[in-house]
Structure formats: C-alpha cells, structure tokens
Specification:
The chain has 220 residues and is mostly helical. 53% of the residues lie in helices and 0% in strands. The longest helix is centred in the middle third of the chain and has 24 residues.
Length: 220
C-alpha cells in the first residue's frame, strides 16, 4: 500500500474503515460507467440511513489499515479472516453459531460476504478518490483491535452503530458510496442486513470484552 494521501475535500469532512470496513469523502460520489445500472442517490445527513448519528470528522486511516492487515491485506482481505485474527477461531465459531441461530445460517453467510465486499469496495472507492492507506498501520492486533472498533462505533449515548463505524473507517461520504454499490449489486435488503447483523455482532463482542455499558442498536 502507498503512503497516506488525502484530498482537501476529504480533510474537510471525513474519517475510515472498517470496520472497520466500509466509508466517504464529504458526500463526493464517484461516477459509474455510463453503461452500468443507475445507482440510488444516498444523500449526506446528520443521521445515517440505517440508524444512528453520522460521523463527519476525519477518517482514522491507521486503524482502518490495521483492520485490513488483520483480514489478509488489501489484495486478499476477507472479513472472516479479520474476525479470527481479532477474536480467535473458537470465539468466532461460537459467535457464528449464535448468530446463525438468531438470523439463520444463510443470512449470516450473506452478512460475512457483505462485509468482505464492503471493505474491498471501500478501498476501491477510496483509491478512486485519491485516498490511500498509510504504510504503517496502527499497532493494533487481536482483541486490542476489536476493542478499538467497539469504541469507534459507540456513539455518545453508549449505543454501537455500524454506520458510525463505517463513517469513521473511510468517511461518511465513502460510506454512502459503498452503500450505493451494495444496493446496485445485491439490493436494499442485503445492505440493511449487513448493518443489522454487524450491530448485533459488535454488541456481542463488546460484552465479551467487558464493555458492559455498550448498548444494542434498535436495528439488530
């Protein structure tokens, strides 16, 4: 990966992932191929589309880089690899079993695949916007990284929101762009499912890490 490069537009109103994952440039929308399916318009608001406040500050690219590294790097990122790196295989297996019982195994697989797509698409969109991750990720590994992601997605009232983390991972604008890409690729339901299950999963992680004050989002 190249050294950090952020355009002046980004520095006026953005952050990254995510998990982060993943993601915006103060509302800048990257134009798609003229032959591609039309993308839905997702405007910038103080609230995220799937609930919780929007984060309009600068992205924490070093943390995003740590997440990407945990997932196998920018060229081979997978969300399940990142989860195992942060929490260990036994913990991940137990959480997947719990979520599968709660939502169904097919939905959980769709969620994991959706998170992998979101992060990879966020990195692609960031590159198109002139943003690259730093060559030196934050020194965050294992549960330490998971704890930072819990803290990054927790808003002032103590609730953990996936949209807030995504905003911080690359920025609110890139988060919106990634949502638009997911809507075109897989539909609105898949986009909402990714946010919903991540809300539950990261709440579960927070509780397991002793962050008992973290609240579960209404969308879960």
């Amino acid at each position: 990966m190249k050294t950090l490069k952020i355009t002046s537009t980004l520095s006026r109103g953005s952050w990254v992932l995510a998990a982060s994952l993943g993601l915006a440039l103060g509302g800048v929308m990257v134009s798609a191929d003229t032959h591609a399916a039309p993308q839905p318009t997702i405007t910038t608001h103080t609230m995220n589309w799937f609930g919780g406040p929007a984060y309009m500050g600068d992205p924490a690219l070093e943390v995003t880089a740590a997440l990407v590294e945990a997932g196998g790097g920018a060229d081979h990122f997978s969300f399940d690899t990142a989860l195992v790196a942060m929490l260990g295989q036994d913990t991940v297996n137990a959480e997947v079993a719990k979520l599968s019982k709660q939502y169904g195994a097919d939905q959980v697989k769709q969620f994991v695949d959706g998170m992998t797509f979101a992060v990879n698409d966020g990195l692609k969109r960031a590159t198109e916007a002139g943003v690259t991750l730093p060559t030196a990720p934050a020194d965050l590994k294992g549960q330490k990284l998971a704890l930072v992601l819990v803290q990054a997605g927790t808003v002032d009232d103590g609730t953990w929101w996936s949209g807030y983390l995504f905003d911080k991972a690359l920025s609110h604008g890139l988060h919106n762009q990634v949502m638009a890409d997911i809507e075109v690729k897989a539909g609105h339901g898949a986009d909402q499912l990714t946010h919903r299950i991540l809300n539950q999963a990261m709440y579960d992680v927070a509780q397991a890490l002793g962050q008992k004050d973290v609240k579960l989002a209404t969308l879960h």
